[in-house]
Please model this.
Amino acid sequence: MSKFIYLVLSLVVVSISCYKYVYAYQDVESTNSRRHSIMAKCAHKFGVTDNDLRTALRSGDVDVIDPCFWSCCFKGTGVLNKEGLYDLEATLPLIKLTFRDDDYKEVQEIAKLCETVNNEIVNNGDAGCERAAMLVSCFLDGGSNRHFY
Model:
């Protein structure tokens, strides 16, 4: 699985595969454990299987999964705040634990571009469901033309 899809999976709290770096090995381990726990709770709550998640991310059709699943995962890690807005400052450390050097810079750029989801009008406000689905789509779209695939 590509490193970029791993980023999206990290953001939705799944650790299917990971590139662990010596400089942050313990942080990566504890963060991945926490992410997996949050993802498992959200998956159970919304009836999302690992296969559902992989299929949605590989196809780019994130709408096949209940958008509140994405919100549950993102709120659990702080990627979305309690108001249902994308929190770039909380997201960057997750990216830093997953990517290094040039890859980090590129993913950081995508993360910054995706901050525009906060400007979109959504119907569910602080629940963040629609915004979370938009955020996953934004990350997938941003990475599709880069070397992560």
